[in-house]
Amino acid sequence: MENHPILLFDGVCNLCNGAVQFIIQRDPDGIFRFASLQSAAAKQVLTQFPEAPTDISTIILVERGRLFTKSDAALRTARYLSGAWPALYSFIIVPRPIRNAIYDWVARNRYQWFGKKDKCMIPTPGLKNRFLE
């Protein structure tokens, strides 16, 4: 798993699940591994990082032994995607407090705007190997 960036996401959030599907479609080499923040697998991954947030209001990217959250995680994820999406990484020059203020605003409203599921997403058999157990 160390060679694969791991993306941890809110498994009941429709926006988050849509983002995971978006990433999978633009990750033809299958670089990313995924787990919902509600899962035992995510909790296990996060034991390595005392600084990890305890809530589920952010995506978390674990890349090369480092943990990234909020806009840092989103922008670093974009670098791996096919097409023009890596160009989004140029927004890293925007000061983190500004980027994260926008991220937090969307995160606070994600259930209201996009809804949520009763249960975490269950990957299809074809994608099961991309998700941590």
- The share of residues in helices is 25-40%
Strand order of the largest sheet: 2-1-3-4
Averaged pLDDT: 90
Order of helices and strands: EHEHEEHH
The tally of domains stands at 1
The oligomeric state is single chain
Strand content: 5-15%
Total DSSP E strands: 4
H/I helix tally: 4
The chain-level structural class is alpha+beta
Shape: globular
Largest sheet: 4 strands, mixed
In whole angstroms, the N-to-C terminal distance is 12 Å
- Rounded radius of gyration (Å): 14 Å
List segments where confidence is low: pLDDT < 50 over at least 5 consecutive residues. none
Record keyword descriptors for this entry:
single chain, 133 residues, alpha+beta, four-stranded mixed beta sheet, 4 strands, 35% helix, globular
Short description:
This protein is 35% helix and 12% strand.
What does this 3D model show about the protein?
By secondary structure, the protein is of the alpha+beta class. The protein has one domain. The chain is built from four helices and four strands, in the order E-H-E-H-E-E-H-H. The chain has a four-stranded mixed β-sheet with strand order 2-1-3-4, covered by helices on one side. The longest helix is centred in the C-terminal third of the chain and has 19 residues, at 96-114. The radius of gyration is 14 Å and the shape is globular.
